[in-house]
């Protein structure tokens, strides 16, 4: 009995690959022949027609895109116009009843307005009168007295007067002249300042002080004038 031969796996694989390659080649050749057949069957006119169809499709797509762009632009323009339109005030207007005013109320309003105008006019007159009085007082205060009395010590303050007392001849010795002079001036100022404010209202504090000092220089209450006597 003959010996049974084993199967060579490598040879089988090689044959399988060869068969697959051959089948693939035959399929490719058949496909190329079929394509060649259809190309020859269509001819040059068919290719031109196909090209025209492609161009027509492209033009149709372009027209469709332009139409869509125009539609979007018109829609956007309508929305802008709608947003810019002013709201109708008449539609939202609410009727408010106007209250009726009686003749008595009108007369009362006129009387109040006339009283207010009269009050303002009176205040204006008083203000003008006060301004004129202040100007007159300032002119009076600012006038320089040219009639000087050499026997009177000229000074702007109590301290200046005390300093001049120290150098004036024929004055008796006073251990505390500044105390006596300041006390006398203070008492004189307390008496005269309210009088001046009542007689000549509207002046500044410095103007009152200046007037009091001028009165003090000629007053018999001034110790300097008592010494000169």
Automatic annotation (TrEMBL):
Biased composition (Basic and acidic residues): 12-91, 102-126
Region annotation (Disordered) ranges: 1-132
Alphabetized UniProt keyword annotations: Coiled coil
A Pfam entry, by short name: Ccdc124
The keyword Acetylation appears for this protein: no
InterPro entries the record matches: Ccdc124/Oxs1, Ccdc124/Oxs1_C
Domain Coiled-coil: 146-226
Database matches in PANTHER family: COILED-COIL DOMAIN-CONTAINING PROTEIN 124
Family note: Belongs to the CCDC124 family.
Name by which UniProt lists this protein: Coiled-coil domain-containing protein
Taxonomic classification: Eukaryota, Viridiplantae, Streptophyta, Embryophyta, Tracheophyta
């Amino acid at each position: 009995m003959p010996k049974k031969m084993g199967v060579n796996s490598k040879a089988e694989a090689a044959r399988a690959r060869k068969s697959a390659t051959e089948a693939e080649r035959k399929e490719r050749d058949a496909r190329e022949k079929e394509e060649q057949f259809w190309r020859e069957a269509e001819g040059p006119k068919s290719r031109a027609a196909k090209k025209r169809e492609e161009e027509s499709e492209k033009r149709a797509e372009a027209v469709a895109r332009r139409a869509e762009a125009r539609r979007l632009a018109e829609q956007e323009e309508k929305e802008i116009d709608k947003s810019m339109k002013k709201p109708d005030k008449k539609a939202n207007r609410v009727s408010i009843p106007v209250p009726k005013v009686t003749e008595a109320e009108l007369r009362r309003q006129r009387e109040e307005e006339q009283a207010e105008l009269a009050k303002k006019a009176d205040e204006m007159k008083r203000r003008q009168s006060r301004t004129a009085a202040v100007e007159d007082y300032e002119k009076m205060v600012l006038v320089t007295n040219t009639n000087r009395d050499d026997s009177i010590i000229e000074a702007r303050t109590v301290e200046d007067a005390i300093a001049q007392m120290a150098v004036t001849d024929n004055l008796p010795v006073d251990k505390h002249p500044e105390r006596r002079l300041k006390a006398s001036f203070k008492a004189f100022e307390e008496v005269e300042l309210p009088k001046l404010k009542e007689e000549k209202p509207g002046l500044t504090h410095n103007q009152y002080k200046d007037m009091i000092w001028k009165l003090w220089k000629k007053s018999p209450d001034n110790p300097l004038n008592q010494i000169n006597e």
